[in-house]
Predict the 3D structure of the following.
Amino acid sequence: MRQAWRVADVRSAEKALMATLPAGTLMQRAAAGLARRCALLLRESGGVYGASVVLLVGSGDNGGDTLFAGALLSGRGAAVSAVLLDPNRAHSAGLAALRRAGGRAITDLPVCADLVVDGIVGIGVSGGLRDQAAALVARLSSLQARDGGRPPVVAVDVPSGVAVDTGDVPGDAVHADVTVTFGCLKPAHVVGPAAALAGHVDLVDIGLGATLRADPAVRVPDVSDIAAWWPRTHSGSDKYSRGVVGVATGSATYPGAAVLSIAGALAGPAGLVRYAGSAGPEVLRQHPSVIATERVADAGRVQAWVCGSGLGTGADARTELRSVLASSLPVLLDADALNLLVDGQLATDLRRDAPLVITPHDGEFARLSGQAPGADRVGAACRLAAWINAVVLLKGDRTIVATPAGEVWANPTGSAALATAGSGDVLAGLLGSLLAAGVPAERAAVAAAYVHGLAGRHAAVDGPVTAPDVAAALRSVLADLR
């Protein structure tokens, strides 16, 4: 598991650590880690000695980190030039170190460079880039490396121009190939459009871990987390002990939603799927192991319910949703079930003690909360989770899972391949299967999003992806997981 902290918490931890160290120690640690990563990149394209390195240097400590790293590269034979955006506010000690090592300050971008280091702004700046910096960044694409290609761009701590605490990109920003960050990850590395601009994120240990007292703003699962949470069968398992999931999705008008959500549920850990709805004939034709009835009230015993996609929004759909919410079981609501919540008539039905998970996309989120997620998707998901006392899985390229207690996860496996009709139905079924198997709601949401994302990537290898492709890929992904 990886974790990311907000700027205020990072600054507090840095202050506590600096009080125990000689002045300048943290900057020297950061510069050394940055220089090392730059040297590794240069080795891939001909070596450090004689390479042309351009530093984009703003004011403050971020510029200082950049200048000291430039001095270390210059000492190894690189030709290092620093473009100072505000020469009067450049880090004086860092600039002096660069000059002593043979580097120089220049007034404009050169024609050629083998590596660009973005030290314009760091985590202490909010808002988009100013005009001078934005113009400079826009011209980076014109640079040419000695091998004839485009020089790689290394961002210092975060790509300049991103909103660090939210992952938003309010204007022009640097698109980095590598981001070297110090001490801990920040939200911009893992959520929102900023995450895509960070490229590969390399974390440099500067000793900050012991002083990070606050809870992380965002957690990011890795494959070992998902594997540890995923239920396993054993010699005493049977279809009931593995969990029975009820699926109230689809309709005679939209039978595909039922078929796809059940495909997701069958790929999960539950041992039995019960279907309740008017799409029964098509469900049984494609999934003969399912037990089908027409109403939730007749479905029999289950351990969790999935309700919503393709259900419709008429009186019958409202009755089925009420029956699901009246149970004392974990419930997942998706698509039409979320639309039925918007008018407020079901507000009292949401006052339940059992776990509730909702899986809105941005449009459904806006209808539920009264406004779009906006720039701060993490904050928006947390507010909605607390308001309706549910785990919120906010779909997107970097899907967010937020709990009513304020714990947040970001899914790292998202793919544009999943932007296809019915993909969310598959996710809902898979998540419901995890709930029925006894996985806690927040872990079920995180694990389902992670595996669903991998399935989308797996399916995309063969070309354009459809929802049935995603469902079919789940089994091979889960086999690899185990």
Notes: The chain has a mean pLDDT of 95. Residues 121 and 160 are 5 Å apart (CA to CA). The chain is about 40% helix and 15% strand.
